[in-house]
Every structure is written in structure tokens, then in C-alpha cells.
């Protein structure tokens, strides 16, 4: 049985709340489901920019969590995450498997 995390309370209270991503480590690999296309019909909004904001905000939350869990300064953790993320994005990696589903 998969170990799901708790849904944040504001997400359970907002009738317009939308799940944007699910991330899993399973079967010795990384697996995800993304809600790509969410911003497709929003005039004046670039979806690539929207995802950059989502990923940036997620990075800030990870930095907060690591800082609290390990007792390290938040800014130090955030800077380390930023540097490692830039390295990871620059690496040539094999194409992801999977595709779009409705």
C-alpha cells in the first residue's frame, strides 16, 4: 500500500483547489503525475512561467523543511538546493518515459 502524505488543510477547504503534482519514489525510480495544461485557457498567463513559480515555491518549502529537520540555516539550505538544482538541470539525462493522459 502506498504511503500518501496528508493533504494540506487549505486544499481540503477550498472548493476551487486543484492538485498540480504527485511525486513518488517506487520500484527503484522516480514517478510523477503533473497537471499540465491547467493554465492553457487563462488569457495572459504563460504556463511555463506558472510552473517555474510552482517549482520555485516547492523549492522554498523543501528548504524550510530541511532547515527545520536538520537545524541548518534556511538560506544556506536554499542556496545549496539552488546550486544542486542548476547542476541537475544541466546534466544530460535520458528522456522521461510516459506521456500525457486525460
From TrEMBL:
- Pfam families given in the database record: DUF5076
What is the protein named? DUF5076 domain-containing protein
**Protein source organism:** Caulobacter sp. 602-2
Amino acid at each position: 500500500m502506498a504511503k500518501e502524505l496528508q493533504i494540506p488543510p487549505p486544499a481540503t477547504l477550498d472548493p476551487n483547489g486543484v492538485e498540480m503534482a504527485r511525486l513518488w519514489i517506487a520500484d527503484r525510480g522516480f514517478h510523477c503525475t503533473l497537471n499540465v495544461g491547467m493554465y492553457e485557457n487563462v488569457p495572459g498567463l504563460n504556463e511555463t512561467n506558472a510552473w517555474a513559480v510552482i517549482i520555485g515555491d516547492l523549492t522554498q518549502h523543501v528548504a524550510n523543511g530541511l532547515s527545520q529537520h536538520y537545524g541548518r540555516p534556511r538560506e544556506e539550505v536554499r542556496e545549496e538546493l539552488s546550486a544542486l538544482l542548476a547542476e541537475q538541470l544541466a546534466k544530460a539525462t535520458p528522456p522521461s518515459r510516459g506521456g500525457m493522459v486525460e
